[in-house]
Amino acid sequence: MDNANDEVNQQGDPNNKFLSVQNNLKVNKSNIVTKTYGWGKFQPKFLQGLLSAKWALFWLCWAGAMQGLIVNGFVNGVITTIERRFGLRSSQTGLVASGYDIASFVCLAPVSYFGGRLGASKPRWLAWGVIIMGLGSLTFAFPHFLVGPYRASTAEIDLCTTGEGNATVRQHCEGSTESENENLTWTVWLFFASQLLHGIGAAPLYTLGVTYIDENVSRKMSSVYLGIYYTMAIIGPAVGYVVGGQLLLIYTDFMTVDSNTLGLTSQSKVWIGAWWIGFVFAAIACIVLAIPMFGYPESLPGSEEIQQERVSEAHNGNTSANKSYTKLKDIPKAFCALLRNPTFCLLNLAGASEGLIIAGFSAFLPKQIENQFSISPVWAALLMGVVTVPAGGGGTFLGGYLVKRLKLTCSGIIKLCLIVSITATFFTLCFLLSCPNLPFAGVTSAYSSQTKLLSDVDFRRVDYDLDSTCNMNCGCNKFDYDPVCGADGVMYFSPCHAGCDKELNMDGSKIYLNCECIHSSANSSYDAINTICETTCNNLGYFIAVCFMLMLFTFLATMPALSATLRCVHDDQRSFALGIQWIKVRIFGTIPAPLLFGAIIDETCILWEESCDDSGACLVYDNKYMSKYMWILALIGKICSVVFFFGAWYFYIPPKGLDDKASEEGSDAESQHQQQPNQQTFSREGFTLGRCPEDPADAEADPRRRHIKIIKIKIPTKCYDKRKSRLNL
Question: Which UniProt keywords apply (predicted)?
Fold first, then answer.
């Protein structure tokens, strides 16, 4: 009888109902698995403070930064240097750059599928990935140790020797030793293999890493956390450009050779910096970073509540509700389910077009800046770093902040991507801000009129002639590229081709006197010097300013596009969906991008390095056509992005009963929950606890439940059905 009275009292008193539910939920706390931080049985108490979303984000940010620093910073920053050091073409270094994306393409599906299954430990997948990435970085530095020391052509005197005819190809090759004519193009495959390791190691970072963050923070904070994560991933390349550029100031064989004895400076065209040092230190850093990442459990405390409180915004097309795809044979079914989502597919294509632009220019923009504005690789890398930090990092973080600040739904997020992509399209005009080629005797200008460029000429279609009456009997050859800048402001292939017969060292550089081909003024203390001639073009500042805006608006769409992708698919498909998205981005974007950009840049070459086996790296490019081709590529990529984002917005169908107002109310409710997790909520019909959020249309279907309100509690949410007076566990 007492039990019956208690039950009646509980049914009549809403406060007693709340206490009863609390007691039931406290009992179920024993069923919750305790999560700790550590490695196996070693779980020190003083490290348990690391078991939070903020600390997990901290380590993931460093992992993302290391990936960006190595792949998009160090590698892209030394492309020009390794081309010159190992005699590689841009199409070959383009293959090297694409190796990362090829490996990611192969690994993304299995990594995202098996790493995203129930019971899989995402942190372990991520930690092993970082270790593999470190091994790839170490492999990238191997060619430096596997080949002989760098022999700059200036180590030998290359002056005009009167009475000797200019050497032919056959004479040069017959008179050279095997070591002097060593072909180093085989190193491209070692670079390619290291990039494959980079791609394998980085595969979990932007699939499992993203979903691990998203699963362990509220939807409102997810865009902020992911914005921070991607911002660090953007800062990584910027730091890589800056640090890599500074390392290029050190001579590559500094441990065995004093560059001053060679008369070389970083401004010399044949200077090779210590490109390999950064990769060695990055390898060590990756291995150290993996240790704390191994200590995290499959999920963080509180993740169950977050998952139960979410309302799905998945595209409401003809696809059925969530299905559980847990076996290997279910991969085709899961893939087909995603293909039936037009918004998801179009967002993938937009990501591919953006990826093509970003990957292509990340690899070859430093080369373009270096050649267009006649600056050294050191300054080109430094400028890339200075622009990338505020533009790329700021744009990425700002994009995530706008999604949170404006409380955008999936449809609103796609609109934001569309607007910023349209804006970025106008800033592609920066690539038309180019400079004319420097006068180069026998290539872009004639020996008889050195200071005057050949006007209205396609240099690619003109046969250059480095020989002239002033150097005909000097014994010059076309293999020892040692360019000098004449006092007349003209570049010459070598001191010999300038007709110089005397060499002196001055302040670490080499100066040349008595140059028959150079018409110098009486005020000049030398006829030529082994540095790059200064350009009179002042477009560099304007180019950097407009390029900054292009980068800002390009990266501004990164986080919103990612948020839209995560929202337009069902929750249990997120890891797999991100894997499929990255596969498409790589197939149509980042894999062909370096190959395409490299091949097109090679088409603008007007002077190739010659060797006994084959031509090597490009020595001089046609600035006019390089600028034109880069602008066309950027414009086409941006137009495609605009079209695909528009299609994604047009075909998106929100779930039934979900609109902007509801989404805002949901965000507000979630915010209130974080501040007051145990708030009691009453309605006109009585007390109701924790209405199940799985079906937003239930309240409309049942008139008696229209006034039901939702409260959130700190431990996993349970649903109280007042019609049955029991918990639905």
Answer: Cell membrane, Disulfide bond, Ion transport, Membrane, Transmembrane, Transmembrane helix, Transport
